[in-house]
Structure formats: C-alpha cells, structure tokens
Amino acid sequence: MFPLKDDIPTRRTPIVTIALIAINVVVYFVFERGLWELGDVGNERVLEYGAIPAEITEGEEVGPPGQAPFWVTILTSMFMHGSLLHLGGNMLFLWIFGNNIEDSMGRLTFVAFYLLGGLAALGLHVVADPGSTIPTVGASGAIAAVLGAYARLYPRARVVTLVFIIIIFTVVTLPALVVLGLWFVLQLLPAFSDPSGAGGGVAYFAHIGGFVFGLLVIKLFANNIHEDYERSHRIPVY
Which tops the pLDDT comparison, 43 or 82? Predict the structure, then answer.
C-alpha cells in the first residue's frame, strides 16, 4: 500500500516541509554521495554520522575511527538515508502528510515537533537494542511522528492510495486512519517478531516510537487545526 496524495488543501505554503525535503535531498546527493559518486563514499558517511545505539547508551565511541560524537549523530542521522529508494519513500510520505501538520501549527513549532519526533523514535530504537553497533540513519522516525499526528488530527481525510495485491495493483481512496493504521500494524508485526526490532535492516521500533509520539503529543503543538477538513467529501445538502 503506497499513498499518493490526500484531499486536505493547505492554507499556506508549507515552507518548512519543503525545506526539510530539500535538506534531506542535498545531504544524500552532496554529502553522502559526493554528487552522484556511489559506493564507498556513502557507506563511510553512514558509518561516520549514523547514530549507533551502543555509543548513546555507553556515552563513548564504539564505532569505527573517525566516528562523529554520539550527540552529533543523534541529529545528523535524521537527515541521512541508506539508498535512493529509502530517501524517495520517506520524502513522499513527508510531502503528503507533513504539509498539513505544518499547517496546523507555527512553522518553528513544526521544526521542534519534527526534531522531537525523531529523537523519540531513536530513543525507542536504542531502548529496544541498546547494545547494537550498527549505525542507524533515516528520516523515517521523525516522519512517523508526522504520520501519528495526522492520524490523530485528520483520521477521516481521504488518501489516494496505490494498493498491491499479489501481482495486481489498483488505485483506491481510503480514510487516512485506515492507511496509517495499516502502516503502523506493518511496523508492529516485524518489530515484535525480531528481538532487535531491526529485521531486514529496518529500525521498526524507531517507526513505532515516532508514530506513538506524534499520536500522543500533537494536541500540545497544534493550535490551528483544519477543523473543516471533511468539506471536500461531504454529501451536498440542498
């Protein structure tokens, strides 16, 4: 299941969301890949600036020589990605759902919400696997906080979704709560079937931590909720 767009128009240009997407893209192609140079350069950057749970819990370097301090990697890891597919998927989710969450609060408040969501996500990942020496990178945790916030504020928004059923795919429109609820379930299942919560190289507990953070705290941040967001799909009354 792959969301394509939602039906809630924003009331102002989502400057922060656009800036976050731009920063992630620039970090990937310029900082990680050295302007399209693939291979070892990107791997070295991930090792240097990815967040390593064991370093965070022990407060000392356990990674390779040249590893950035753990308190730096907590931030840098949020803007790095392991592959072009990883980057593209994250930025699509951020664009579809992030603009409306930004629209529900002040721009600086949204920056704080996004970063705190990323910290909450990394925190649960570290708790789930505190001894891991594998670098963690990706905006997924912070974006998961955005998804949790969207599910809380706009559960009945309509999301145009590409659905795959074996070898058949179709486009359907579903309530946001269904789309995001299924996404969350798909994080829970592998997380609790793998003790490390990182099956297949995916930090599922980070996704869970971010989503739950957004779900629980969004009402503390949002002061300009789009209360009439269902207008576009109401049945007209004459």
Answer: 82
